[in-house]
Amino acid sequence: MQDGRGGPIPSDTELWHRATAGDPGAFGDLFDRHANAIFNFCLRRTRDVEAAEDLVSGTFLHAWRRRGDVRLLGDSVLPWLYAIAANLIRRHARGLGRRAAALRRLPAPRSEPDPADAVIERVDEQRRSERALALLRSLPERDQDLFVMCVWQGLSYDQAALALAIPVGTVRSRLSRARTRLRRLLQEPVPASGDERFEHSDPLGKGAQD
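Request: output the structure for the sequence above.
Response:
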């Protein structure tokens, strides 16, 4: 295959070697290649577009700063980027917890009626993925990372093992347990306020590796 300049498309390994030598253009190519995957991962784990955008920036900033300290295992930089993003997401969640605790200590604000149209609009936006993400949050945090990486983001077991620093066999067993748990939860009745379209989706990724 060729890139937009007519030359062969460089591999992640080639771009990474150039980036570690100080080539910002090569690192920019890696960003263009993988930023969307990292954004989707962060969005599915945080449910917050602005937070996901900040986490993507933080992930690639950390990768750039550490570029001289890391040697790629395999031919893709994605597992390492996912590992960075997962760590930043955990820090983000801890920060949210501290802020929530601080807010609970403040006097409750006076509630004002919300215009009906605005309420309906917000509900419509949230219902699409609320059921799937609620099920995902029922898993342990480490299994949430694994499930999103393998099932929704399409990482191989080997890549997920690299990203999470666990054996491939552990990836298989944990993912199998996660799918079993989610299938059991899917058999429970969906609340009336849930998104009916979810019933026809494939949140467990039946087409993915089993």
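Residues 78-104 form the longest helix (27 residues).
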